[in-house]
Amino acid sequence: MMNAVETENLTRVFNGLHAVDGLTFTVREGEVFGLLGPNGAGKTTTIRMLTGQLRPTAGRARVVGYDVVSERDHLKPQIGVVFEYQNLYERMSGRENLAFSARLYGTEVDRVDEILEQVELGKRAGDPVRHYSNGMKQRLLIARSLLHRPRILFLDEPTKGLDPTVARQIRRLVLDLADQGVTVFLTTHYMEEADQLCRRVAFLDEGRIVALDTPQRLKVTYGQRHVKATLDDEECLTFSLDDPNDGRRLGELAAAGRIVTLHSAEATLEEIFIRLTGKGLAE
Amino acid sequence: MNWRVILIVARKDIIDAVKNLYILFGLVLPIGMSLLLRLMFAGPDDPGTLTVVVYDPTGSRLVTELRALPQVHLLEVDSAQQLTAEVEKNAVGGLALPVNLDAAVDAGEQAEITVYLNHRRGGGGIAAFQRLVEQQVWAMTGQAMPAHIVWADVTAPPGLQAESAFRMDLFLLTMFLVMALAMTGAFVVPLLLVEEKEKHTLEFLLISPAGPAEVVAGKALTGLVYSLLIAGILIALNQGWVGDWPVTLLALLLGALFMVAVGLLMGSVCRTTMHVNTWSSIVMLVLMAPSWLIALQMPTALETALRLIPTHYLVKVLKLALTGDASLVQVWGDLALLLGSVVLAFAAVVWALRREDR
Predict the structure, then answer these.
(1) Which residue among B8, B200, B207 places its CB closest to the CB of A51?
(2) Which of A90, B44, B178, B210 could covalently link to B214 via disulfide, CB atoms 3.0 to 4.6 Å apart?
(3) Is the pTM here over 0.90, yes or no?
(4) Under CATH, domain A3-220 is a member of which superfamily?
């Protein structure tokens, strides 16, 4: 299976500051890959370089086999991008927005209604976009990015600012795309989202990748194995599974019948990120 | 450059632009002002009967045609002296025809017709009379202007009559044409570009098969379409289809291209709609200045300064072309200067584009 994304020492410097600093990674075809990090970590800059919007200061990147600098024109029809902001033509209707995009890409305009139904916007397709809710706009953005059947979809913070119900709808859409074999490259600072959607994630901090693996393996590698017990007097205690003393004490409490509930306390991606970088994702 | 993509971008902008009330206002303002001023300048002779005095020593078919017009009350006199006295007393204007005018026209010569105007009869009547004379003289052959018309003001002191005959209708039309081109080029075009930046839709366009050159060319085409459309409406509303069409169209096309290039430059520099509002009003004032100052006797220094503004040459050519007095030989120098300005302005746009590209 070929790689959908290959980067080698990818770097972008703005006024002497390294926004992205020597990224080397690959994304496999058909994979959902997450780039995680707080605001300002370099996620959007990375996406902008990979989609040909920004020229790297150093290093190289190939997306679906095309060099992002020298083969930008060949690359464009192969990628779909959902931007961080809802950049739609607000005076035009949903259908007009998609028809314009279809004409630009040379896609058959008949596909517009088909994809509008797919994102459940068929009934409101004739309304001006300015009358759409945030969730509807986000679904229209995804529809627009998929209209020309791209081989890879870039999603920059796809659920940012959306209410939980709409965010769940968007995640469902992403999972459907993954089932259809579309490669998805997403950036987010919502750890649960990444955990739920991505096969592999990379932690980005100050333009550098500090960890890259499957969420499960990151938890095993960087997390602590412990359990949380609630006692009969409502006291909550945490026991490390790697500490023999903790194991003995837990056994004694269990034998005395004092444990009311017992839960495994697997580390979250957020806790691992904090452990690795010393900062939270909301920063 | 991908022409298919340019046309798709232009089509989107042409339809979407008029949904933006701000842009729509900019586009229709020159037409609205032109209609308003026409109403304001309408005098007692307009649109009713025009009293016209004629001195025709040899009996021209021009007079026969005028006599047949229901809106013209014709007074025929026997001498040029009688003509000016009669115009001053009773009429909006008068025509002094040369001997054997018809023969001269038929022989392809350009005879001289002196037209006297009585400005005490109101601007509307004068404008209607001027349009009538041009249309009738034009109709004598239907092609090249068959006679050279000298306009003279009977209310001015003798000796200054020809210099002081002011063509208000022509002045206004030229002013509104330049205004329409400036509004579309230096206001609408940068707004189209800046709106794409502000709403981040430019980023969507730039990851699509449209490159920066196609986006800019699409905006330029939109500006050009609206410029020429509004100029056409203004001409149709103000004087009908008389004048030297090839030269008028060429001047309007070059003028529109220049203004659009200025607008594209502004669009590449400005980041917000507010920037466009601020800068376009200043740029438009400068570009429109030659069209306001055309009628004034100006100090030499100011006239020299005006020559630095490319629209000065546009105004000069339009003024001649709209009356049919222009010939390519006469205006080629001004058109060449205008063309040079267009080339320079577009070169600056290309430079700005390359600088902006990533």
Answers:
(1) B207
(2) B210
(3) no
(4) P-loop containing nucleotide triphosphate hydrolases (3.40.50.300)
